[in-house]
Amino acid sequence: MLHSLSFTYSSLLTRACSNGRTLSTLPAFTSLGCLPTTHSPVVSKLAFFNSVTGDGSKIPNYRVLDTLGVPVEGAEVPEISKQFARRLYETMQLLPTLDDILCSGQRQGRIPFYATSYGEEATVIGSAAALADDDEVLSQYRETGVLLWRGFSLDGIMAQVFGNHEDSGKGRQIAVHYSSKQHHFHTISSPLATQIPQAAGVGFALKRDPARRSKNVACVFFGEGAASEGDFHAGMLFASTVPSPTLLLARNNGFAISTPNSQQFYGDGISARGPGYGVDTVRVDGNDVLAVMNAVKEARRRCLEGGRAVLVEMMTYRVSHHSTSDDSYAYRERQEVEDRKKNDNPIARFRLFMESRGWWNETEEEELALRLRRDVIKALKRAETVKKPDLEDMFTDVYAEEPWNIKEQREELMALLKKYGQVWEPWQNELRALEKDGGKKLSE
């Protein structure tokens, strides 16, 4: 048990107990009895409340390392080996290396779209390290690090962003929308927050499976902007009330595309909502990889033990633009971003911690940077030579029996191929890049 890590269950410190369950109350005026349905104690003084802490203060932020990599007084530093720490650090460093090269690739027209994890490396890798490798993950689009931590290859990353025939999605998803059945990583969906109620359902399925009950959780990642969607509340209600072992990890990175969190909600972040659904909740410094790992590990334990939702809000900062389709300097100052990169860098913080223990040095840093860049570029160049999926794959894998509208679209494409496929150069070039027969089967 991590004694320095405090989860919030109730909003108002004084508690009463009913039917074995701890309940939140206003100051303990219990002599007047309780309401029969809710077991809420009756009081004679009119008192409004607008805080989950009881005294009006902000929800605290759990931290292990300060911004200089020094353990905070009273914090419990997890017992990790040098080898494990190096794995954490190297995977964190792989993310910006991958982001640098693929962002450049998008600007050069080599891939159509990309979204980065800049500034959120500790949030993603710390969470991944605390989960079991067979926990089911439903993510948004900044959790590439979870896949990398679980052993998903750089070739697999490149296959997806290039949409070639090695991609498990057969090139039918937008870039950075990964999936891997082998790694228990569910397909990413672009619409915000759809994964949250889905995760509650996955958690319920795990609870009903004798082989996985009390062994695995459904873990769902989402940004604080997604928490403004109705699906967040639907998922929270389901996972807390049915209930299901669903671990909700909110990345509060300050922005929902161009909307700052100050314009998204008036309350105290996402953590304030957890007690309203009766779930254990904690807020953690998302730029402290050890704090994230501690918090998610304990949250997962509670999730399995209680069989219901647990909420973790990870406070971080989106250093990058929202995606390659965004220019964040249109709605925030460049200096703000530079200051955060300099003063609260999650990778630099953990590097300082490792150096203080003699686990890392400048020579190793240089060697790692060269190796990671070489590996990523090698995978990118290889992916560019791999054929695209066959045209027939556009129409498969969704319906057991092909409906009329899909048949109609297939016939329309066949007609276009017959008309232009052998005479128009742009189409000829695209057809030659296909994995199988260059679209001949469809056009016949």
Describe the structure.
The protein is of the alpha/beta class and 444 residues long. The protein is built from 13 helices and 9 strands. Helix 1 packs across helix 2. The protein is globular.
Write the layout of secondary structure elements.
Blueprint: E1 15-18, E2 21-24, H1 82-107, H2 121-130, E3 136-138, H3 144-149, H4 154-162, H5 195-208, E4 218-223, H6 230-241, E5 246-252, E6 255-256, E7 259-260, E8 280-285, H7 289-306, E9 310-315, H8 334-343, H9 346-356, H10 362-385, H11 404-420, H12 425-432, H13 440-443
Parallel strand pairs: 3-4, 4-5, 5-9, 8-9
Antiparallel strand pairs: 1-2, 6-7
Helix pairs in contact: 1-2, 1-9, 1-10, 2-7, 4-10, 5-6
Strand content: 5-15%
Distance between the termini: 66 Å
Structural class: alpha/beta
Bin the helical content. Answer: 25-40%
The radius of gyration is: 25 Å
**Main β-sheet description:** 5 strands, parallel
Average pLDDT number: 91
> SSE string, helix = H, strand = E?
EEHHEHHHEHEEEEHEHHHHHH
Oligomer, anyone?
A: single chain
Widest β-sheet, arrangement of strands: 3-4-5-9-8
Number of helical elements: 13
Shape: globular
Task: Give the structure's gist in a few sentences.
The protein is an alpha/beta fold and 444 residues long. It is built from 13 helices and nine strands. A five-stranded parallel beta sheet has the order 3-4-5-9-8, with helices on both faces.
Question: What are the defining features of this structure?
Answer:
about 450 residues, alpha/beta, two-stranded antiparallel ribbon
